[in-house]
Amino acid sequence: MEEIQLPFLQAIQRQQAAGRIALHMPGHKQGRSIIPALQPILGAAAAYDYTELPFTDDLSQPVGALKESQELLAKLYGADTSFYLINGTSGGIMATIFALSAAGQKVLLMRNSHRSVSQGLILSGATPVFMPTTWDKTTGVALPPTVDDLRHALEMHPDIKLVILTSPSFHGISGYLKEQIDLIHSYDIPVMVDEAHGVHTHFSNLLPKDALECGADVVIQSTHKTLSGFTQCSWMHLKGSRIAPARIQAALRILQTTSPSYILLLSLEAASAQMATDGPEKLTRMLELTAHMKERLNRETPLRFLELDELPLQNAAGQDISKLYLRTALYGLSGFQAANMLRLHGLEPELADSGGVLLMLTIADEEEHFESIERCLRSFAASLDTTAEPLPLLTDAPWAAMQPNIALTPREAWYANNELCPFNQSVGRICGETITVYPPGVPVLLPGEVIDVEILEYLQEVKKAGGNIVCDDHTLTSLTVIQQ
Fold first, then answer.
1. What is the pLDDT of residue 402?
2. Which of 113, 152, 286, 301 can bridge 117 by disulfide, Cβ–Cβ 3.0-4.6 Å?
């Protein structure tokens, strides 16, 4: 195991040891003014909360300890350049789109891309071109695009400037990523991969190959999802000659705060250092424990989890086995209902949808945790009515399967005058907001798209089933539309 390297932490510790009186930000002066009630929680961390000083470096232009820390991260993943991100993978996605596309240019993306992609399009002014998404009718999960889907889109739009792929999906499914990236590169187009849910895949041969290994030009990952980074922490990797690091750095300077949290930056360094030392061993052990638990539950209880071989071979090539998608619709329970039942049995799932619930395991889960998890799942399994009729799944999502009617680019719609329109009178109007089902954070309507009746019906079905819709009016009484 490699010796742990923490250059950024050491720089802060040297600053502390210097003993100088702090006449600089932050105002709490390393925690001295934090109220007593929160000192036990925040005090220890606040002692390391500094600002941009000569010895603590500056995220917007790192030349010292932060630069060295990011170089260690790049070495760990085999990247040419890596950046710490302190406003999530969303911030990295928006910065990349902002840096690499402009008004009038086309960006190819999956229809079920995260909402941060549409926000990036608002910033850049680029025009989206969508690859349709299909849902597997047996399991209800979204499928990756096929290589042929991608080839068709590139042939139809040879003037694409950037391609954005998502891999793996929220449910842990990945497609033929290397073949797709090779195809895109044959057109000399750069590829950005939203790998928010795949930050750990680089470190185990039990998992699908990571996007950087598959040849992606830009990869953005969430350390807070499956590694030990704090919430809001992500990082970005660049590799190859298609994208200038200086261009990405400039976009990050625009979109990231000039006063980054040094606690979050330390969290990023700690996550990187862990995966450079004992993290892979912890990951492998967790994956083995997950596989054993899943096998026992499949054999000894009525519980059924998503399996890769259930999905169409032309779409699905790999599965992250640390994500257990429990298919509750088989027993007459929507995922929303099952999630409430699981809470009563002592578990808090990550995601619920019409077909089931998603349970996430990470390197933090060790043997004693698996014993508790399995006990709770067995208790839940005993409460199931195995004679119940299976529920129908919301797999016929028209917004994802069809090419939307784009009347305005997202940026044009953002700046257009808008108004509220009664929900049932909005058919044919131009949408003025982003309407997202969350989780997984996938937009159903983007600014500038013409509203179809099928989309309204889908939104009503999601709401009726208990889904969470993020929009201007969460009651769905009205929608924001462009003024006529």
1. 64
2. 113
Between 192 and 112, residue with greater pLDDT: 192
Q: Cβ distance 3 to 72 under 8 Å?
A: no
Residue 285 structure tokens: 């052990």
Phi, psi of 370 (to 5 degrees): -65, -35
* Residue carrying structure tokens 């054999």: 299
- pLDDT at position 399: 58
Q: How many helices (H) and strands (E) does the chain have?
A: 16, 17
CA angle, 114 then 120 then 126, to 5°: 115
User: First-to-last CA distance in the chain?
Assistant: 64
Distance (Å, whole) CA 184 – CA 194: 16
Do 446 and 128 form a contact (C-beta atoms < 8 A)? yes
Q: Distance between CA atoms of 474 and 84, rounded to whole angstroms? A: 34
Alpha carbons 16 and 305: distance in angstroms, whole number: 50
> What's the rounded Cα separation, in Å, for the pair 136 and 325?
14
- Measured CA to CA, the distance from residue 76 to residue 277 in angstroms comes to 10
Which amino acid, one-letter code, is at 370? Answer: F
Sheet holding 160-166, edge to edge: 81-85, 234-238, 218-222, 191-194, 160-166, 106-110, 127-131
* Beta strands 357-360 and 323-326, pairing class: antiparallel
Torsion of CA 125, 130, 136, 139, to 10 degrees: 0
Lowest mean pLDDT among 217-221, 319-323, 437-441: 437-441
Global confidence as pTM = 0.94
For β-strands 351-352 and 318-319, DSSP reports them as unpaired
CB-neighbour burial class of residue 284 (10 A; exposed 0-12, middle 13-18, buried 19+): middle
Confidence band, pLDDT 50/70/90 cuts, at residue 396 = low
DSSP state of 204: -
User: How would residue 98 be classed by pLDDT, with cut points 50, 70 and 90?
Assistant: very high
Hunting for tokens 């400039």 — which residue is that?
Answer: 250
Structure tokens that stand for 42 in this block: 């925040």
Residue labelled with tokens 């790999």: 318
Predicted local confidence at residue 25, as pLDDT: 92
Strand 435-437 relative to strand 357-360, pairing: unpaired
User: Encoding tokens for residue 65?
Assistant: 């300890």
Mean pLDDT of the 392-398 span: 65
Residues 6+ apart with CB under 8 A from 428: 450, 451
Alpha helices, H only, 229-278: 245-255, 262-276
- Please return the burial class of 69, using the count of CB atoms within 10 Å of its CB with bins 0-12, 13-18 and 19+: buried
Q: What is the DSSP letter of 209?
A: P
